Amino acid sequence: MAIGTNAPGRAAGPDTTNTVPMGAERNLWSAFANARGQDALITSWLAVLVNRVPAASLGVLLRPDPQAGAFVPVAVVPDPRRDLSPLRDIVEKVMTSGRPSTRRSGDGDVSLAACPVKVGDLAVGFIAVLELRGSKDAELQAALREMHWASGWLAAQMWQDASQENQARLERAGVALDILAVASEHRKPAAAAMAIVNEAQTVLGADQISIGVVRKRFSAPRIRLLSMSYSAWFRRRSALAEGLETAMEEAFDQNGSVSHPPIASISRAVAVAHAEHVRTSRTAHMLTVPLSDEDGPMGAMTCERRGGDKPFTESDLLMAESIGSLIGPVLAMKARNHRWIGGRLIDAIAYVLGILLGPRHLSWKLLAVVLIALTIAAATVQGPFRVQADAVLRGREMRSVVAPFAGFIADAPLRAGDVVKSGDLLVRLDDSDLRLEELRWRSEIDRLASQSREAQAEYDRAQVALLEAQIAQARAQLALATAELARTRLTAPIDGVIVSGDLSQKLGAPVQLGEVLFEIAPPDQYRVDIFVDERDLSYVQLDQPGRLALAGQPTEGLPFATTRITPIAEARENANTFRVEGLLTTAPDGLRPGMEGVAKIEVGRALMSWVWSRRLIDWAQKALWTWQP
Fold this sequence. Notes:
Layout lengths: L1 E2 L11 H4 L6 H9 L4 H15 L3 E10 L4 E8 L10 H10 L3 E4 L5 E8 L8 E8 L3 H47 L5 H16 L3 E10 L2 E9 L10 H16 L3 E3 L11 H9 L4 E9 L2 E10 L8 H24 L3 H17 L4 H19 L1 E14 L3 E4 L4 E5 L7 E2 L4 E5 L2 H26 L3 H26 L2 E3 L4 E5 L9 E2 L4 E6 L4 E8 L11 E6 L7 E15 L2 E10 L11 E12 H20 L2
Parallel strand pairs: 1-3
Antiparallel strand pairs: 2-3, 2-6, 4-5, 5-6, 7-8, 7-11, 9-10, 10-11, 12-21, 12-25, 13-20, 14-16, 14-19, 15-18, 16-17, 18-20, 21-24, 22-23, 22-25, 23-24
Helix pairs in contact: 2-3, 3-5, 5-6, 5-9, 6-9, 7-8, 12-13
């Protein structure tokens, strides 16, 4: 950072202070005690410092100017017109090191002493430089000690100013937060704005406060008056309202505060519309601050005073700007939340387009390209159309083994899941009663045969004929008992797999005539029962190919062909289904009847968009038909 010379923007104290004789210490202290304003106070302080150092011939106080990028003089005593370029080296040295420094001239007639003044977080807040006549070490040390002691007052003064400024800032923040709390109690933006202007009018001591927000018509943003303090209704087409809106637009376009008559800190702002409004109304002083949210300016707040003796001050400007900085986002949020669905939809579309068309968010752009490509492909490309439904694997034919008579289970060596061959014993029933029955009829036949022989010996033909009939009856009963005795051993009728039946845990249990004991299915002939939803039944026809994915073998699709469509409905999982039968083309090892899975029947080809959305289309058509009168 370089040192700046006397610039037009430099603030200096009154000329009388700089021309006071160096020996008149009483006058210097009097000027210091009675100085008005910070600039005059600093100049008087520097004059006292120069007077207290006997060898000092010039005193300079410099302050860093971030905008100029250099240390600029704020006070020069006693001659403000002196060339300060010889001080450049020592100032840069103090600025770099942050420590006091001295420098002697080549001839020894003039010396320089510089001391930094640290204020706050700044490394160097001020730099005080004294030009001394002579170059004795004692004089330089005395000058540095005097500058060090004097800089304490300057630092304390700056701390006091900073404390007062922070106190004022806290007070403004507290007032702005109170107004924000009042605005948050209302949902609608107009009601919130009315509460804000009513509270702000008392705080700012204004006669009228108005708030306007941006209303976009076509492409040019326009501000429309939203609320006026203590005015529940106002004419939007009146000259007063139009004048306020024009003044608000003037501050909106400049994105800065505007006042008329001008305030010193914003005197460069264009205030043509404000001056015109003051001229055509009873307003004497007018101040407008912009309202902004995260997207930029969104409105303005105008304060008016009608009394000519109460102009707006810098404090009023800071208070108004503090209020505006907090209420802007709140009003913008309430306005967005209070809009219709169309307005929110437009914002959402604009946000998405900003992401897709902006310079960033490459991943979102790639995702959008992929989605657009998929959408175009789905609307133009045809793909396979398959009807999907739950399926159960069953045997092509089922053979049942039933109880031939009522009896008791004596032995059951096989059960469900076992593979059997034709003639294998499945179950043996208890035959003890049948054997006794067989023995009884054999004995009865022998007895009747003996009686028949006796009757033949007596030539009693009638008795012989009767006994022959009884013998024939007994032999029939014997044949029945023998046949039942043979049926106590139930064997497998075919080669296959026992699908159901487990009597190994029921030994000795009774069975009834005709009770199904086992079901056997052939091992290599399977049928697929497919439970097709009634909404898809119209697409299914006979001899259509398909594939079956079983739960136990999901990666292997088994081919099949539809063979029958049953007309009987069946409710499954809250859906009305019809059973479609299919025959497996191949039957690999490991299949068992009763396995479940998912079957897909090949119907043909169709647009992918229709395949994916047909359920929704069917629902919409049904709903439309239902709503029709």
